[in-house]
Write a structure and sequence with these properties.
The protein is of the alpha/beta class. It contains nine helices and 15 strands. Helix 1 crosses helix 4 and helix 8 packs parallel to helix 9. The structure holds threonylcarbamoyladenylate and magnesium ion.
Length: about 325
């Protein structure tokens, strides 16, 4: 094993090398349209164990299984009629929790009767799944830290714990997939907001989608153990303020993180913009990279503006609130 991660490109030769490594039970960081994932053969427990070890992730936190197509979901999960209504979202940033099939190792599901499944869109990741079969992949960051949206983020935070990285460029969405739980008959629950909004899911399903209440940490831990209140956390403390409000800058070395450019500058802080124009999709794409950058800059505090609570802004605010939780 090399000391530093070996960058692989998305050339056919490098992707076959990555596929070979995955088939041999190694872990490989891969680009997806949401965030970089740390992939392993979803049906190989020894390979899955390496994912948990590299991330420092507790074994009680289940993994998402990535498959090639909606038809392939059948390999790992029981049939679910409502999936037909969600066809338009795949390939894409939607994860669905379903009843598992016995073939899925307990390490993937943390011993549950359910499995989380996604059909990703990134062509390099799709090529690897086509070559290897279903791949389990959590975000490729140490447990609890900010998710990676560039190959260099994976290298910076996992280092030699992840010897192989496929560099597929910056992630298109920049926040993790929307997670929808359909494992109970007749009930649809949103476990994690993401690029696909609750409203879009309700319109497609023709039925209400319950949002899991954030103020019930114990319940939440039951539903999606990785969704602890404190998550996506940079080391620098974060204070939040409402969209458009006047920020209060503490007397400290402070960074001000804004959703859009403002007419007047705020004194007492160095200002960073998530989007020049206030475009929420652009802001979501920029968020994790900017949090990592501010962490490196050694600010004492980050004062961050929340997004409008609509569309991908809901996911953005969810990640900001978790990053701010102490
Ligand atoms: O966009 C994404 O979903 C990225 C890319 C790599 O696909 N993956 C990702 O994985 O964000 P991870 O492991 O960082 O987050 C997956 C979340 C965790 O909070 C986990 O607890 C939850 O999905 N999860 C996995 N299986 C579950 C299940 N059977 N029931 C409930 N929650 C589950
Ligand atoms: Mg994660």
């Amino acid at each position: 094993m090399p000391d530093l991660p070996s960058p692989l490109s998305t050339s056919p030769a490098d992707l076959s090398r990555a596929a070979e490594l995955l088939r041999a039970g190694e872990i490989v960081a891969v680009p997806t349209e949401t965030v970089y994932g740390l992939a392993a053969d979803a049906l190989n427990p020894a390979a899955l164990a390496k994912v948990f070890a590299a991330k420092g992730r507790p074994l009680v936190d289940p993994l998402i299984v990535h498959v090639a197509s909606a038809a392939e979901v059948d390999r790992v999960a029981e049939p679910e009629a409502r999936l037909g209504r969600l066809a338009a979202f795949w390939p894409g940033p939607l994860t669905v929790v379903l009843r598992r099939r016995p073939v899925v190792p307990d390490l993937v599901t943390a011993g549950r009767e359910t499995v989380a499944v996604r059909v990703p869109a990134h062509p390099a990741f799709r090529a690897l799944i086509a070559a290897v079969g279903p791949l389990a992949a959590p975000s490729a960051n140490p447990f609890g830290y900010v998710s990676p949206t560039l190959a260099s983020h994976v290298r910076d935070s996992l280092g030699e714990r992840c010897p192989w990285i496929v560099d597929g460029g910056p992630c298109a969405h920049g926040v993790e997939s929307t997670i929808l739980d359909l494992s109970s008959p007749g009930v649809a629950r949103l476990l994690r907001p993401g690029p696909i909004s609750r409203e879009a899911l309700e319109a497609a399903l023709g039925a209400p989608v319950e949002a899991v209440v954030r103020s019930a940490p114990a319940d939440q831990a039951q539903l999606a153990p990785g969704m602890l209140e404190r998550h996506y956390s940079p080391r620098t403390p974060i204070r939040l303020f409402a969209r458009g409000a006047e920020p209060v800058i503490p007397p400290a070395h402070a960074a001000l993180l804004l959703q859009a450019r403002r007419a007047a500058a705020t004194p007492g802080a160095e200002t960073f913009l998530l989007s020049e124009s206030g475009d929420p999709a652009e802001a979501a794409r920029a968020l994790f990279a900017l949090l990592r950058k501010l962490d490196r800059r050694g600010f004492e505090v980050i004062v961050a503006e929340l997004a409008e609570e609509t569309g991908v802004g809901v996911a953005l605010n969810d990640r900001l609130r978790r990053a701010a939780a102490r």
